[in-house]
Structure to design on (177 residues):
């Protein structure tokens, strides 16, 4: 049965499935932009979503990525896949109430294929029931797409713009520290 993730302002994310309740699902997202993702987490929190940015030591993520992902992938893909698998295997999360949220670009980069790579790695790690949902502006034919409200999209865009400004300020001042 296909499970769809729906988002309504002020309510927690839930998948429609008759067998279990998903009132308190945790959405795991790999750390790719530290400044930006912390701001996006605040947007999700304001809309009642539990978004957790994965904080796995780089070496652990790399080891898990090399174990469960194809070695022909680029380094960022191996690291992101490793972050997700290491976090899921850490025992910190109730896997029955956890989903992985991954951004898809829809472009020519391999990042468009991250969802398939992550799903396979999760299955190879023995965790096939953890759903991977995509956050994408493009319609890539994904069944498990994460739907955003217009207000949340506006707030997320503002968070990304603020993240860019903060990152530029940081990188302008860091050489002088």
């Amino acid at each position: 049965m296909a499970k769809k993730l729906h988002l309504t302002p002020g309510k927690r994310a839930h998948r429609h499935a008759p067998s279990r309740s998903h009132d308190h699902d945790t959405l795991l997202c790999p750390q790719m932009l530290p400044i930006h993702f912390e701001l996006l987490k605040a947007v999700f929190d304001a809309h009642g979503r539990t978004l957790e940015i994965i904080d796995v030591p780089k070496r652990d993520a790399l080891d898990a990525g090399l174990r469960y992902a194809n070695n022909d992938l680029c380094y960022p893909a191996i690291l992101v896949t490793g972050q997700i698998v290491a976090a899921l295997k850490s025992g910190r999360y109730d896997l029955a109430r956890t989903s992985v949220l991954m951004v898809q670009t829809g472009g020519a980069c391999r990042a468009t294929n991250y969802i398939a790579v992550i799903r396979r790695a999760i299955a190879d790690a023995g965790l096939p029931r953890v759903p991977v949902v995509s956050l994408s502006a493009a319609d890539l034919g994904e069944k498990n797409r994460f739907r955003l409200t217009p207000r949340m999209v506006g707030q997320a865009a503002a968070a990304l713009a603020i993240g860019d400004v903060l990152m530029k300020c940081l990188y302008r001042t860091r050489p002088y520290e």
Remarks:
- The beta strands are 5-6, 14-15, 26-29, 50-53, 98-103, 132-135.
